[in-house]
């Protein structure tokens, strides 16, 4: 399905390839994005899920199976195929197998395989990963954590690190509408307040409760505000946790075109997710040149962030350390600037242009 990070990547890939994109669905029920289904300079087709898929999706939203997939794969003229999605989903399995059998160069682009401790479950998952192992020529791992997870299950072929990526230029302040940005400044920074921003679904896994607890431990005289961007089932609980503090703001879900304004408004970005295979919001914060405080369980942190150099890394559940990290950056502008300066190389590595060129070089090398 179309996602903000994929659209940026496709825009970069089309400059290097004759690109065709096949979406398994227009939208999943747990996603709020309202994104274009038409490609600008590349072709797009959206598949229709069959009756079986619609029934299964009542329980498992990532299950996709379309009768159209067979005709599309039979007539496809691509030289290179990148498959992305739930590895056991029928559309993914058929796309891998048919493309491989037709002598195309096939890559599977994936987040980490979720670990299991039970040996029986491990063996079952390894069997389910069989089509990826058998019918791909290489793995495009979304970060080191993904690469390591596939190696643990015995993936035997080449692995390349291609993280989620964005069009970094969209987050540069020079590309914002000054009037729209000034409206936010007037609203949230009338007295030069320090703004902390977090972005993500308001669910337990994203750790927004940790941020609220840590923020409320800060002294009032710091003149700081916490903005939570996103929506979800935990919103009411989080509002109660914040005790209706006038320094904690719920700004709701924001469409892609508005997101850069909020990141530029912020002075500090905080992300306390209890688990994220990658965490695209880290890309966005670095693109907007904001210092980051991130939990140690986020894939992007393990891959690209170095504690006390280009970010502050905190154990996800340690509220006291989160509060201390917040206070350190709020009160030390020089340190904030140092972290921003140290993160510039990483910012480039997480751009769509950079990773599209990596894809081009990878496929050229295996022709």
UniProtKB/TrEMBL annotation:
Entry-linked Gene3D superfamilies: Glycogen Phosphorylase B
InterPro entries, alphabetized: Glyco_trans_1 (IPR001296), Glycosyltransferase_grp1 (IPR050194)
Pfam family, one: Glycos_transf_1
SUPFAM superfamilies per the UniProt record, alphabetical: UDP-Glycosyltransferase/glycogen phosphorylase
UniProt GO molecular function: glycosyltransferase activity
Positions of the Glycosyl transferase family domain: 189-344
Protein name: Glycosyl transferase family 1 domain-containing protein
